[in-house]
Automatic annotation (TrEMBL), chain A:
SUPFAM superfamilies: Glutathione synthetase ATP-binding domain-like, PreATP-grasp domain. This is D-alanine--D-alanine ligase. Its EC number is 6.3.2.4. Cell wall formation. Its main location: cytoplasm. The gene is ddl. Pathway: Cell wall biogenesis; peptidoglycan biosynthesis. Mg(2+) 1 binds at D264. It comes from Phytoactinopolyspora halotolerans. Binds 2 magnesium or manganese ions per subunit. It catalyses: 2 D-alanine + ATP = D-alanyl-D-alanine + ADP + phosphate + H(+).
From TrEMBL, chain B:
This is PLP-dependent aminotransferase family protein. Gene3D superfamilies: Aspartate Aminotransferase, domain 1 (3.90.1150.10), Type I PLP-dependent aspartate aminotransferase-like (Major domain) (3.40.640.10). It comes from Phytoactinopolyspora halotolerans. It comes from the Bacteria. Keywords: Aminotransferase, Pyridoxal phosphate, Transferase. Residues 77-413 form the Aminotransferase class I/classII large domain. Belongs to the class-I pyridoxal-phosphate-dependent aminotransferase family. InterPro entries: Aminotransferase_I/II_large, Class-I_PLP-dep_aminotransf, PyrdxlP-dep_Trfase, PyrdxlP-dep_Trfase_major, PyrdxlP-dep_Trfase_small. The keyword Transferase applies. Pfam families: Aminotran_1_2. GO terms for molecular function: pyridoxal phosphate binding; transaminase activity.
């Protein structure tokens, strides 16, 4: 049995990604058990705070995806309760989960992100959607990608090849939130790089290259085994692989992230990485990307989770 | 922790020759019929619907809180004490003989006088659907089904690669003339119609009931065309006014396979349903059932049998009817008060469901994430069509939440619809075309 003591995996919540979160939680909890950690899993519900206060675990591994899990709320609560936890500080989560804010910070740090704009639902309503969409297409060009400013698992995201499909893509996007990002679709290889830091500084794990059968890495392609082909490490020349790894570590540092993150990007034909999204609570399901990188690195998921928890406990003790 | 820097070296090593993985070693070996079995956003959103914060008008869970659980507990305890060696043993593939006799009694109120030999007990009527489809359908065969139809049936039909042709309904159920036209069109194309699948009473998902006159017309049309009818009747005893419509099977024992269930009149946890089929069909059903599950669970069958013989089950059904009527009234009242102009909905006289169709341009599947954010859930209409129609409609269940929660759920839904209408108005996003019938009634019906 590990000397960590009893740790808690938090999964579920009320976001649109509840199902993914529950699967991530089960996977991590099971992996921790396999390496001898005393672990339990619970939902983030109305009894959570009372439970954490009455029976505080040695450390918490939050695997809540979406709002509450990635917008800094749960991290704020764990800090308030003075509990060690795996993951980034609340403020870093908040700015990373908000894609427009993180995009601005990444660009300021000299990292490439696709040209695009951020617009709210009310802006379209008040200024006239048709003219605005027309201007958008003129400025950004087609194809383009529409996605909610906050959220994950590609929920509410659409690839738009034809301007006639843009209004319905916007409506679907706004069903997930009040703000949308519209970005130019960068052609190239879709690559995801996980970064972990168990106390010795952030390290990029082998990049995963994603080739979705349908051509779009949407919810279906993410969570249905057999519909997407993954190459780990990504099929990149070593110099490009190095650039990609450095970009992910720079993104991790720029956004003030801690312990673990995952950066999704497109590598264009010239080898330039374009950052699409940075995740503070990467998925841990059977088809998720970080576990594939961990495996390719020759590390067990349970070992990694245990080391991250141990680092969190140490950090807390030293604070 | 020294292994982590090494991980980075693995990343930057030349990897152009990396081989891919689809994370499923058997990806090329699955049967064609599994191709539709994939992850979906809608299914994922239902994970949130199960949380108590959300008013779920989505699921069709019978309200078993209305059952006298103490009585059921004593009954089960006594069953094990007195008949445990039978209840915990394998049984007959066709089902327990005493239960089959009791099932014949249960069917009498709907006018069906069946013989126990023609009854096959199944694991819920869902298994009956599976068995019937298995013995009749070759890939590409046509099944006629209502528009919309029960999602669980469509899923079974899809898994046997049937081609479902939907037939228009209105507030009086299936439209006979449309049945006639559909049969003619399919037959003219040289394809084979294996059966018409129908839920004539308190339809799932539409909530409508087929009129007595139309039952006769449709029986006549199908007899003339040689089309078998599969009559699924899980809700027949749950008419709010105690009305028990006469089953189609009552008037055509050779042309109709009747499906019944104890899931709504007793409890779904036992998973006990049945079919009453013409003799030759029954023979095949029993053989198919044996190859599927050997025998239906003896424990569940004997529990249902004890319940029927030792408890006032008719009184319990009456209590269920009252419970569901109160909930349906709450939903219809809230819809009357809160739905926008251009929305229309059915007015059930029994069962569990209301079919709501929203004003033109709205898409209930695209709207579902907004609804879940607003803590209310429903099932988008497209789930009840095999052909992509139904995008403006949704199924609302009134069976489970309390009347107050139903009113609150409809209130939240009305807000969501209002927000979505504003958004659609801003973008002018065109909605999908609608199938005539319940989803797009003539202007005077709207």
């Amino acid at each position: 049995m590990s000397d960590l003591g009893h740790v808690l995996v938090l999964a579920g919540g009320l976001s649109h990604e509840r199902d993914v979160s529950l699967r991530s939680g089960r996977r991590v909890a099971e992996s921790l058990r396999e390496v001898g950690v005393d672990v339990s899993q619970r939902d983030a519900d109305a009894d959570l705070i009372v439970t954490l206060r009455n029976d505080p675990p040695a450390a918490v591994f939050p695997l809540l995806h979406g709002v509450q899990g990635e917008d800094g709320a749960i991290q704020q609560i764990l800090t308030l309760l003075d509990l060690p936890y795996v993951g980034s500080p609340a403020g870093s989560c908040r700015q990373t989960f908000d894609k427009p804010i993180s995009k601005g910070l990444l660009e300021k740090a000299g990292l490439n992100t696709p040209p695009g704009v951020v617009l709210s639902q009310s802006t379209f309503r008040e200024l006239g959607a048709a003219a605005l969409l027309d201007a958008l297409v003129g400025r950004i060009g087609l194809p383009l990608v529409v996605k909610p400013s906050r959220g994950g698992s590609a929920l509410g995201s659409s690839l738009v090849n034809d301007a006639a499909d843009l209004p319905s893509a916007m409506v679907e996007c706004f069903a997930y939130g009040d703000s949308a990002m519209i970005e130019r679709k960068i052609e190239g290889s879709e690559v995801s790089v996980s970064v972990v830091d168990t106390g010795d500084g952030p390290v990029a794990l082998p990049a995963v290259e994603i080739v979705a059968e349908s051509g779009t890495y949407d919810y279906h392609a993410r969570y249905t085994a057999g519909t997407t082909e993954y190459f780990v490490p990504a099929r990149l020349p070593s110099a490009v692989a190095d650039d990609v790894a450095q970009a992910a570590v720079r993104a991790h540092r720029t956004l003030g992230l801690r312990d673990v993150s995952r950066t999704d990007m497109i590598v264009d034909s010239s080898g330039t990485p374009w950052l699409l999204d940075v995740n503070v609570a990467p998925g841990m399901t059977e088809t998720s990307l970080l576990p594939q990188s961990v495996r390719a690195a020759g590390i067990g998921l349970g070992e990694l989770a245990r080391d991250l928890l141990a680092a969190a406990v140490k950090r807390h003790a030293e604070a | 922790m020294g292994q982590y820097p090494d991980a980075q070296r693995r990343n930057t090593a030349a990897a152009v020759s990396s081989t891919g993985s689809k994370l499923d070693s058997y990806v090329d070996r699955y049967a064609t019929r599994t191709h539709g079995m994939t992850a979906s956003e809608v299914r994922s959103l239902f994970a949130v619907a199960s949380r108590p914060e959300v008013v779920s008008l989505a699921g069709g869970m019978p309200n078993i809180s209305g059952l006298p659980l103490d009585v059921v507990g004593s009954l089960l305890s006594e069953l094990i004490e007195k008949r445990g060696t039978t209840a915990l043993q394998y049984g007959s593939g066709q089902g327990d003989p005493q239960l089959r006799e009791q099932i014949c009694d249960v069917m009498r109120p709907v006018g069906v006088h069946g013989h126990p030999d023609d009854v096959t007990v199944t694991v819920g009527s869902q298994q009956a659907l599976d068995l019937i489809t298995r013995i009749f359908i070759d890939p590409g065969d046509v099944i006629l089904a209502e528009a919309p139809s029960y999602v669980g049936a469509l899923s079974t039909f899809r898994s046997y690669q049937a081609d479902v042709v939907h037939v228009e309904m209105d507030d009086d159920g299936l439209v006979p003339e449309r049945v006639r036209q559909a049969i003619a069109t399919v037959q003219a194309s040289g394809r084979t119609i294996k059966f018409l699948y129908t839920i004539p009473n308190y339809h799932n998902p539409a909530g409508v009931t087929l009129t007595a006159q139309r039952r006769q017309e449709i029986l006549g049309i199908c007899q003339d065309a040689g089309v078998l009818i599969v009559e699924d009747d899980p809700y027949g005893l749950l008419g709010f006014d105690g009305d028990v419509p006469r089953a189609m099977r009552a008037d055509d024992p050779e042309g109709v396979i009747y499906l019944g269930s104890f899931s709504k009149t007793f409890a779904p946890g036992f998973r006990v349903g049945w079919t009453l089929a013409p003799h030759a069909v029954r023979e095949k059903l029993v053989l198919a059932a044996e190859s599927s599950v050997l025998c239906p669970p003896a424990f569940s069958q004997l529990a249902v049998s004890e319940y029927l013989s030792g408890h006032d089950w008719r009184g319990q059904v009456k209590a269920f009817r009252e419970l569901y009527r109160e909930r349906c009234d709450a939903m219809l009242g809230a819809l009357d008060d809160l739905m926008p102009a251009g929305a229309h909905w059915t007015r059930p006289r029994g069962g569990f469901y209301v079919w709501l169709t929203l004003p033109a341009g709205l898409d209930t599947k695209a709207m579902l994430p907004r609804a879940v954010t607003n803590r209310v859930a429903y099932v988008p209409g497209t789930a009840f069509y095999a052909d992509g129609f139904g995008s403006r409609s949704m199924r609302l269940s009134f069976c489970y939440p309390t009347p107050d929660r139903i009113r609150e759920g409809v209130r939240r839904l009305a807000q969501v619809i209002e927000q979505e209408m504003e958004l659609r108005a801003a973008f002018g996003a065109a909605g999908a075309s609608q199938r005539p019938g319940l989803d797009a009634p003539a202007p005077d019906q709207a």
